[in-house]
Amino acid sequence: MTEPTESRKQRAARRAGEFPPAPEPLPRPVLDSHTHLDITVSEAGVPGGPADDPVAAAVAVAAEVGVDRLVQVGVDVASSRWGVETAEAYPAVVATVALHPNEAPRLADLDEALRQIEALAARDRVRGIGETGMDFFRTGDEGRVAQEESFRAHIAIAKRYGKPLVIHDRDAHADVLRILDDEGAPETVVLHCFSGDAEFAAECVRRGYLLSFAGTVTFGSAGALREAAALTPLDQILVETDAPYLTPMPHRGRPNASYLIPVTVRSLAGTTGADLDELCTAISATGDRVFGPW
Fold this sequence. Notes:
The protein has helices at 8-14, 37-44, 54-64, 77-89, 110-121, 144-161, 173-183, 198-206, 223-231, 261-272, 276-291, and strands at 30-35, 67-73, 93-97, 126-135, 165-170, 189-191, 210-213, 237-239. Helix 4 runs parallel beside helix 5 and helix 8 runs parallel beside helix 9. It has 294 residues and is α/β, with parallel strands linked by helices. The chain has one domain (39-291): Alpha-Beta Barrel (TIM Barrel). The longest helix has 18 residues, at 144-161. Strands 1-2-3-4-5-6-7-8 form an 8-stranded parallel sheet. It is 43% helix and 15% strand.
């Protein structure tokens, strides 16, 4: 999850606008490897307008364009619990659980929150531990000790339960790699909303990590990010919305949701030079390999 500098109230007002039109369906189904359904439906609503069951409506709209699987990502105890309950109720959804790195320094009892996350991690519909990591953009020096403690604890949870680690890394590339090296990385590591350059991408690829690209890869200013995507093997690429954030071009500034994944996939096909069918097949297979069968 990316946290813009505007206030939560301002973000909610901005995302109360009209959703973009649905893109052309993909030739083969793919997944949204990282979304925040709880925030999306509460702050932005659902494409097509209000619905009696907004989660079901969001899932259905995504499926119509070939996005048939969603990974609902936790950022605190409450959203992690909501994600587990949602994944248990909707077959198209699986969950990850974690404390966001910007959440950790705010907690009065980090240890207790981590215990609750670990209890949720054992559930079958929980298919990853994240988003966790380091964020030097939103949290200053005073919060980094708590961030690092939390990150190390999440790495341990991921290894104990044999589940992928989903990493939030903002302005903290070197420290993320340092901590993973110190602790020993889990078998599967996903760099959510990959934000590094080609050099950092090459280092992550060498380590066998998965790079998940969001709508940012479509932004005009994201030349370095596209260079990173171009050198990433297809079997190490995932695609995400991070909805309701990071809406791809040409819809930047409007609400984001899983049904817009095809915009980013088509952009990546152009960047990587891959055939669209081939890219969709690779993304789908990687999703199943990382998060297991839905």
